[in-house]
Design goal:
Number of helices: 4
CATH superfamily: Pleckstrin-homology domain (PH domain)/Phosphotyrosine-binding domain (PTB)
Structural class: alpha+beta
Strand content: 25-35%
Number of domains: 1
Number of strands: 7
Strand order of the largest sheet: 1-2-3-4
């Protein structure tokens, strides 16, 4: 087994706690798959051209539940994640079953990950400001919480 295979096996051992597909009329007829583990949220889109996104849960700033009348009729809803992630500052988990339960589970996991990493809200919101262009970053910000300034 090569070095890359060993690294791949290390990262793939994380247990998926929840998974669902984007639904149309309540049916999982899409090639958009949402899932999360204890540490990360995953988004995978496409059948021929596949894009994947991973977001560390401790980088989630806010979680919102949304359900329109039509979504309620078909038994689905959406959860919106506002994150400090540069590539996905706003991620909508569209048309999933039991969206309120998913929101509550994600909220609990996010808090656990933040406590483990000792990340405070002030650090996260400062990082989000840089990604959204609200702060010029001239004082420097420690994005990963390791005590070393990452952005000047």
């Amino acid at each position: 087994m090569g070095r890359i295979d060993k690294l791949t096996n290390l990262t793939e051992k994380e247990e998926i706690l929840w998974q669902d597909r984007k639904r149309y009329f309540g049916l999982p007829l899409s090639f958009t798959i949402y899932s999360f583990s204890m540490n990360k949220f995953y988004l995978k889109r496409g059948i021929f051209n596949i894009t994947s996104e991973e977001i560390l849960l401790y980088r989630v700033l806010d979680i919102t539940f949304k359900q329109s009348m039509w979504q309620k009729i078909f038994g689905v809803g959406s959860v919106i994640l506002t994150t400090a992630d540069k590539t996905a500052p706003l991620l909508e988990i569209k048309n999933i079953k039991t969206p309120d339960r998913v929101r509550k589970a994600l909220s609990n996991l996010v808090e656990q990950r933040r406590d483990e990493k000792r990340v405070t809200g002030k650090e996260m919101f400062g990082a989000a400001g840089i990604f959204h262009g609200d702060v010029d970053g001239s004082d420097g910000v420690d994005l990963d919480g390791d005590g070393i300034i990452d952005v000047h």
